Each structure stands twice: as C-alpha cells, then as structure tokens.
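Example for tutorial group B:
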C-alpha cells in the first residue's frame, strides 16, 4: 500500500513515529523533510551485505570489550525535526539505548549501497547523518565494487573521507577495528 495515501501530507518526527506505530503490516518507511518515504524490500545481495556488516561490527565491538550495542535496520536516526533515517546498521556508544525507543543516537551509521541508492547514500544521507552530533563515522559499503567509503568526523569537527578496499578499518571513537573484507563479503567470515 502506498504510504502517501495513508500519511498526512507533512509531519514532524514525533508525528511520524506515532503514525507508523498504528500502521498494519510490515511496511517500512523513513521520514524525509516531513514526507513519508516507503522503503522497498531488499534484494538478496543487499540483505547479505547488511547481515555481514552487522556481524562484523558485532564481533569487533565484542572483541574490543565495548558496551556499544549494534543495530540492524529498523531503528531510526533522528536527523532533525522533519527527517528520520533508517540506516542499514548502526552502533550506539555512550548513552545506553532505551529498549522501548525506535530511535537512537548512533556513533556509527552504515548504508549498503546499490545502483538505485548510491546517489542518496553518498550525497543527501552523507550531509544529513553528519548533522547528528553523535555520529562519528558514516560507512557506505559498496560491496559490488569492493569498496567501503569511510567518512569520519575529526577532532576538529572536519569530515574526512577515504575509500578502503582492504586491510583494517579503524573506528575510533569508539575504539575498535575490523577487516574491510568482513564488511564487504559475507563469505569472508
């Protein structure tokens, strides 16, 4: 069912969250500039990449002994009063996550990109995620190209970006690392 037929024309994040809780079915949405946007289902490749990212981040956080929960898609990152994004994976460090909340304050956000999402993932979402004060790293996983685009907030607040194809990816803060291959390929486990 088309979300635009069900939702008010424009909403705040609070209105959106209340509206989404009343909707039947398993549809998923984001709120972008006050408008409800339906999220399409995953292709198999995208779903496998999301699973690999979640497992790799979970293993790395656990190995580092950090009290940082790792989330799959479904939990939102509030960008502003009219935008709530649902990253493919995220890590929240610092304040504990409220188990009843549908939003969090992520330290790391991850999007697995595809041909249809690449422009938003590397453009609009890049700009939006770094307006969230808690975000220190934004990873764009381009599995089909064998690249992770790593954006990080420096101590001076400047955003630095680099392409990573192999080796170890350092995510500090919060203070852990992982092999790039584990993020790119579910078979690299």
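The residue assignment follows.
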């Amino acid at each position: 069912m088309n979300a635009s037929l069900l939702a008010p024309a424009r909403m705040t994040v609070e209105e959106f969250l209340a509206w989404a809780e009343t909707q039947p079915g398993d549809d998923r949405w984001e709120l972008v500039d006050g408008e409800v946007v339906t999220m399409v289902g995953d292709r198999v490749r995208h779903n496998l990449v999301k699973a690999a990212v979640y497992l790799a981040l979970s293993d790395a956080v656990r190995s580092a002994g950090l009290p940082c929960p790792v989330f799959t898609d479904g939990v939102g990152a509030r960008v502003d009063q009219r935008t709530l994004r649902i990253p493919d994976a995220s890590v929240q460090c610092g304040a504990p996550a409220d188990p009843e909340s549908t939003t969090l304050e992520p330290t790391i956000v991850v999007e697995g990109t595809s041909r249809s999402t690449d422009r938003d993932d590397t453009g609009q979402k890049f700009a939006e995620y770094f307006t969230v004060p808690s975000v220190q790293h934004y990873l764009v996983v381009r599995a089909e190209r064998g690249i992770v685009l790593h954006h990080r907030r420096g101590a001076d607040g400047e955003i630095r970006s680099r392409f990573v194809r192999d080796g170890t990816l350092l995510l500090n803060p919060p203070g852990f690392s992982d092999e790039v291959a584990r993020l790119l390929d579910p078979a690299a486990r």
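The chain has six helices and 13 strands. Compare this with the pattern of hydrophobic and polar residues in the output above.
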